[in-house]
Amino acid sequence: MEEAREGLTLKVVAERLTLGITRMLESMPGVMDIRFVEREPAEKRSLLSWEQNNNCALPEDFRDFYLTTDGLTLTWSVKLDNEPVPVGCMVVNSITKLKPLSQSSSLFSLPSAPTLADLDYGEDETEEPDGGLAKPCFDSRSRIFELDPCNGNGKVCLVYKDCTKGVVAQQCDVWFLDRSLYWHYMTPTFTAYYRLMITHLGLPEWQYSFTPYGLSPQAKQWAALYQPLTFHCDPNIADPAGEPHINKLDPIRAFKGKTKLPPPKKKQSTQGGVGGGTGTTTKGQGSSGRHSGTKR
After folding, report:
1. CB burial class (10 A; 0-12, 13-18, 19+) of residue 267?
2. Contact 96, 46 (CB under 8 A)
3. SS3 135
4. Count of CB atoms within 10 A of residue 161's CB?
5. At what angle do helices 190-199 and 60-68 cross, to 10 degrees?
């Protein structure tokens, strides 16, 4: 009886934490093996220790999340050929895994090895050309912490910008770092990002819908299947001019066959015929002459 109550309680907690997305996934065709990893709330001393070690203040909404559950992991699969294929993955790192972004891009810790901070060398202007938000820096001007490793497709990061040494950083927002080490702004708060993650069902590469180049063809197929409304109406796939990235190729012109020039007409045999006829006639005349001579 107690086990049944505990199971019911865990299910209720899971539905509340995931905003009821688990029930929605269960009703979708082909979805199976929905796994929600239960975690105990993080201790307050762990949160205080993190803030002291990193000289950053956790946002109030993020602190409340950790006091409810120490991170989040929810995965789901799709049944194809009677085999489960992993598709969806929603992750928020625990407080112990909320670590600064690695400052080295080298496999070996050599003194002269390049680091991510070298990418900011000589770039004094961090503002976007169109006047948008300033991008995070890999050096000491920003403090960057990994929220989600995105299965190796990039990293979702909690970013504190305009940091000063010895001063506690207060303001932060959420950015996506793609595999080419380019930053893309996502949301101003953790709560907004969390709802965004739930809305996208943790589909593969969903973070790339906030980039100019968008999803890969395979990710588009999953999005079109399990997230058709949001996928087709996503305003972030529009260019700065407000026009969607559609194929502007005119198929009528592209596949229109080239106008074939009429084949050159063969030279009329008039000239040749005249010449030939003249020759023939002459020859005939000569022949006639010979015959005439014979008769004579």
Report:
1. exposed
2. yes
3. coil
4. 19
5. 60
Beta bridge partners of 73: 91
Q: Token pair of 144, please?
A: 């960057």
Top mean pLDDT of 117-126, 131-140, 199-208, 230-239 is at 199-208
pLDDT at 95 over 90: yes
Structural Rg of the chain based on CA atoms: 36
Query: What integer pLDDT is reported at residue 11 of this predicted model?
Result: 62
pLDDT digits (tens, 9 = 90+) for 222-236: 888 887 655 554 444
Backbone CA torsion sign across 104, 106, 108, 114: negative
Backbone angles phi, psi at 147, to 5 degrees: -90, -40
Calpha distance 231→225 (Å, rounded): 9
Instruction: Report residue 52 as tokens.
Output: 């002291």
If one counts every other C-beta atom within 10 angstroms of the C-beta of residue 54, the result is 17
What single DSSP character describes residue 293?
H
Model pTM score: 0.69
Give the Cα separation of 241 and 247 in Å (integer): 15
DSSP string for 45-75:
HHHHHHHHHHTBPPPHHHHHHHHH-S-EEEE
pLDDT of 178 higher than 70:
yes
